[in-house]
Amino acid sequence: FQPQANLIITREIQVVNNTSTWFINRKPSTLKAVEEQITALNIQVGNLCQFLPQDKVGEFAKLSKIELLEATEKSIGPPEMYQFHCELKNFREKERELEVNIPIIETQGSNCRKICVIKLNNLCKEKSNSLEKMKQRVERYKQDVERYHERKRHLDLIEMLERKRPWVEYENVRQQHEEVKLSRDQAKEELKNLKEMQAPVAKKIQEIEEHYKSLDTKIRDKAVEIKDTSQKCKQKQDALEKKDKQIEEINQALRMKKDEEMDRQKKIYNTRKMIEDWENELKTMVSENLQPQIDAVNKELKHLQEERANIDSDVSDIRTEKSNQEMERKRIAGCIVELDNIMNMKEEKLKGKFRDTHSALMWLRKNPDKFKKRVCEPMMLAINMKDNRHAKYVENHISSNDMRAFVFESQEDMEKFLLEMRDYRKLKVNAVCAPAESYAEAKPSRPIEELHRYGFFSYLRELFDAPRPVMSYLCFQYRVHDVPVGTEKTKNMIERVIHETKFKQIYTAEEKYVVKVSAYTNQTLSSNTSVKAAQFLTISVDTDERRQLESQQQEISSTLESLDVQLTTLFERQKHLERRDNELRQQKKDLLERGNKRRQLESKIAVKHDSLREMEQDAINLEDESQKANIQIKEINAQKARLVTELMHLIKDCVSLNIIKADLVLQSASVAAEKNRLELEYKAANVQLRASEQRFRDLDDRKRILMENCRELLKKARQVCKLTPDQHLPKEFQTAFQALPNSLEEIDAFLNEEKSRASCFTGLNASV
């Protein structure tokens, strides 16, 4: 593993099985990998200069200066420092050995003997110092030896506890197995007794069920008989009601004849009274000649009808004209909407290309009153091509910044607009100001007719329409009124065109030529570029057409208003003529009635006399009608008496059948109650039986699982003690186990305690 900036080492200790799991940065790892990481980080747990536990303070105090130096080198120095130091000491020892082994040569010189004596004395001192150090080291190691033996005792006890623990686990599970086996046998016996108790109850329930079905069949049969009898009773009752209705109908017919006779008498009286009144009125009437008055009224009515016919014709003509005008207005409105849609497309293209410019346009349309003079929308909206094929020439001639620029007639308005947009609204917009003197009508240097022989067909200005301020700015800034547009013919003779026409800018079918005169050589220089395809002006709105449509729309509105006024006048005249017509017709009616009244009275009197004779002949004999009705009612009452007798017999039969059915129902209810009681008892016993069966199955499964656990634990215990399957536990283990706790909790507590004590003895090994 490579050391990381933030290394996290985690150790999880499982007390149950005394195992450890290591993690590096929350990922599972091994102890070896952890030790490698610790070594890579130069962490030395056994070095007292780097990690000093409380129980090692005394040992740290006993360290000599040499040992402190070595521990410090290991703690803070690089790994090779201590290795170099060891190698240096080894070299020094070898040097001393070589000095000791030098033979003493007898020489005559006194200096040589002195050198040998000094070396021997130094060697003796070094050996004495080494001996003293070794004695001190042995004295220090006595405590480590005692701690080593104490640690060994703890480890032996841990080993014995770990050997006994599986045997205790096995014994506990074996005892559980015996207890579960006993409980399972008891449950088996209880299940057998419950099954024996259920058999007679089930047989009795079956017998009661058969009896209940027999009673139910009898009840259904009686119900059918009762239904048939009730149906017959219903038929008799319906027949009685029908007879009552027949009697009521006879009485009603008799009453109607009496009422009819009374009405006839009243009508005869009223008719005689009316004839008498009309005859008296006829005697008092005087004859007169009303024909001249009637003729005068007819003449005036004819004149009114002719005038009304003329007015109706005028109204029809005006309505037709109004309908035609409204249809034309709708057509014009549709054309204006189409032009507006084209304008919307141009605005969407502006929004997609220059969002800030579009936001400024929306603000300008809402606030036109903030400016003193006219403000034109961006040129790409204001310019409308007469032919979209020529849009590329205009776009190549006008810069893109000016294409999206607003055009102002006033410098003050432009500065106010830019302050609002750029400073307050943080929008990147362009604006230009049209010249104070208009250049929109500026004349070209030469008429276009003179240029036809060079292939030119128009100047740029004539290819599009634009508001006057925009056109003035373009003529002033870009001289669109003096830039000709040509064809392939122009390109083919371009040298001649440049030399003869003296134009500074020229367009051919696909190229733009810029002509300059050198200030030094006075030579004519020209450069050409390809004309790029148009992006903004390919969508154009015919402003002349729109203005013409709006003018037509206003004319039609005026015409419709005039037609409405004419219709109102004609309608008022119609109402006047209609009132006069009604007056004349009422006058004529009154005159005719005055002339026809005598004849009408005579005719009415004759008709009433005939009606009176008919009514007198239609007299009804009420006594005969009453006798006939009584005879019919007596016959119907005799039939009713027979029906009532039959109905009483049927009712008695129905009551008898209901009594029998009620007795059967009571018997069925009693049997059903007994059946329900037994079924409830059977269900309760059945629930107890299923619970007993489930308990038996659970105990049997638990017994089997405990048996398997016993086998596994016994096998594990033998493996821990290194015993064969047929070998018994040795006596020395039994004797040692007797001195140890007998429960798992006590063993685990004792085991953890011993492990904790043993872990306190760190930094020891058998070499002490």
Mean pLDDT score: 81
Low-confidence stretches: 103-109
Spatial strand order of the main sheet: 1-2-3
Summarize the main sheet: 3 strands, antiparallel
Compute the gyration radius: what is it? 67 Å
Content-based structural category = mainly alpha
Helix proportion of residues, in percent?
over 70%
Descriptive account of the structure:
There is one protein chain. This protein is mainly alpha-helical and 768 residues long. Among the domains are: 1-43, no CATH class; 49-99, no CATH class; 384-536, no CATH class. It is built from 18 helices and 13 strands. It has helices at residues 31-40, 57-61, 65-76, 79-100, 110-284, 291-353, 355-366, 379-382, 391-397, 400-403, 411-424, 468-478, 488-492, 494-501, 543-617, 622-720, 731-738, 744-759; strands at residues 9-14, 19-24, 27-29, 375-376, 384-385, 405-408, 430-433, 458-459, 464-465, 484-485, 505-507, 511-517, 524-530. The strands form five sheets. Strands 1-2-3 form a three-stranded antiparallel β-sheet. A three-stranded mixed β-sheet has the order 4-6-7, with helices on both faces. A hairpin with a 6-residue loop joins strand 12 (511-517) and strand 13. The protein starts with 8 loop residues before the first strand and ends in a 9-residue tail after the last helix.
